Amino acid sequence: MDLIEFVSSQALRDHANAKYGKRASMGWSPGRRWDFGYSLAGDVYECFLDSIVTDHTRWVDVGGGRAILPHNEALSAELAGRCESLTSVDPSRNVFENPYAHQKICSMFEEFQVEKKFNLATFRMVAEHVEAPDAVVKKLEECVEPGGLVVIYTINKHSPIPIITRLTPFSWHHKIKKIFWGGQEKDTFPVAYKMNSKRELDSLFVDGGQFKPALFRYLDDVSATIEYKFLNLMEMYMWRFCKHLGMRYFENNILAVYIRK
């Protein structure tokens, strides 16, 4: 049973209105998603984060680099202004370009010198890059206070695109990524896929005894075609067909939340 509340359909609708505008003014892609009743996995993560950040939140964002929510500057600014503190820790010097973090630390997270306890730690599309997950979880045990949350939004390693990624030379990753999602080459990093399944995450966080599971969701990911109108329509119908059959869409991401004991 979930220990914390997941986002409601109405909350996702409200999030879409805030991000993309009312239905009549939306572009074709968010408008189509609205009509199909589908929310991007990244939008679900943003909406969930919006629901848990308060004025008492002492937040460490791990591996976010130059952004907290790279596709939602308005919500990034709102959450940064709402929380008590926001520390961004990233080994890339991109972190110093982050306009929202109150404190910017260029460091591997496992080497981060903890000066205060946090009650929220977030990993947005970062877990797939972690080479030493045991060390990362140990650092979380050190810096997250009892009752604090660790929120991991990441790729499901068993989905088709991550499988292809593992078989593709890293030198090709940005070229492929740019076709589907855009972005800059300096924001593309090697992947390890050591924290990218429920079994791996539970083994790391729960079996050690310092965390307990609070929420786990597979988030259908119909984003590979959002720049291509016809292909996206075909994919949306495929998503609807899977939903009609009660099946999880074959391409999906993971949202996992753990509570520090």
Task: Explain the overall architecture.
It is a single chain. This protein has one domain (9-260): 3-Layer(aba) Sandwich (Rossmann fold). By secondary structure, the protein is of the alpha/beta class. Strand 4 (118-124), helix 5 and strand 5 form a beta-alpha-beta unit. Helix 1 crosses helix 3 and helix 2 packs parallel to helix 9. It has helices at 9-20, 28-36, 41-52, 73-82, 133-143, 160-166, 173-180, 198-205, 229-244; strands spanning 58-62, 85-90, 103-106, 118-124, 144-155, 211-220, 252-260. The model has no long low-confidence stretch (mean pLDDT 91). The chain has nine helices and seven strands, in the order H-H-H-E-H-E-E-E-H-E-H-H-H-E-H-E. The protein has a seven-stranded mixed beta sheet, with helices on both faces. The protein is 36% helix and 20% strand. The longest helix has 16 residues, at 229-244.
